[in-house]
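Hi all, posting the design record for the shared folder.

TITLE: backbone redesign
STEP: 1 of 1
STRUCTURE INPUT:
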């Protein structure tokens, strides 16, 4: 589903943050990236979702080359994204309906001939709110009124229910309560079991080891090692995270 070859990406200060990274993700697989925060994970996920320029190298989703594609083009090629910053995943001043429909409103059956079907969008949003237990005063409440856990549930519900071929999930359970964390993990597992491909970035080693089929360890923008879940140990991952061969 995802093929990444020799990807090089710069950080905000012009430094090389991702240094020649290559890996693949198959359908029905979660590939976890473990590492200390600030070792190129953010730049990698932003590049794969059209939010940061790729300096060199290439990547493909289901055979389509998406190197330096726009976020809109990435979405149109069936890529979902759970960003690491809640502020990048919702528009606080917009309603829950608008936030839940924000990456699909331009396609049928949500719109036709350039006109949005507001009733259809509202009905769809209400169904998602109930199904995913998003605690809110109503579908037209502003997204900024939600708790952190419910904001994250909104993002997860929106992205996963599109049934993307590839989901880029960056720190999906950071800062949420235990109930929301369990919900999010279960949603990722269900997506994988239904044939989706997931790139999971997390600094929580238990999360990486519990959910991933394969684990990549990143340090200073380089992939230091790869292992299956069965091969992984905290000690081995820790050595690779420190830049030492395990």
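Okay, here is what came back for every position:
SEQUENCE:
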């Amino acid at each position: 589903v995802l093929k990444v070859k020799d990807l090089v990406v710069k950080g905000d200060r012009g430094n090389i943050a991702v240094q020649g990274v290559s890996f693949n993700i198959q359908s029905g697989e979660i590939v976890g990236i473990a590492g200390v925060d600030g070792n190129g994970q953010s730049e990698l996920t932003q590049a794969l979702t059209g939010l940061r320029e790729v300096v060199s190298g290439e990547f493909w989703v289901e055979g389509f080359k998406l190197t330096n594609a726009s976020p809109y083009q990435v979405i149109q090629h069936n890529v979902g994204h759970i960003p690491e910053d809640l502020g990048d995943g919702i528009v606080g001043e917009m309603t829950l309906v608008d936030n839940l429909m924000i990456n699909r409103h331009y396609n049928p059956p949500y719109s036709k001939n350039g006109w949005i079907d507001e009733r259809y969008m509202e009905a769809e949003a209400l169904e998602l709110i109930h199904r995913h237990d998003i605690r809110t005063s109503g579908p037209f409440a502003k997204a900024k009124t939600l708790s952190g856990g419910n904001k994250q549930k909104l993002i997860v519900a929106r992205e996963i229910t599109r049934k993307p071929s590839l989901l880029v999930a960056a720190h999906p359970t950071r800062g949420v309560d235990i109930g929301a964390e369990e919900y999010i993990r279960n949603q990722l597992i269900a997506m994988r079991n239904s044939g989706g491909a997931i790139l999971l970035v997390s600094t929580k080693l238990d999360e990486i080891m519990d959910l991933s089929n394969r684990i990549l360890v990143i340090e200073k923008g380089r992939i230091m090692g790869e292992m299956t879940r069965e091969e992984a140990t905290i000690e081995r991952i820790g050595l690779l995270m420190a830049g030492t061969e395990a």
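COMMENT: The CA atoms of residues 2 and 61 lie 5 Å apart.
Let me know if anyone wants the other runs.
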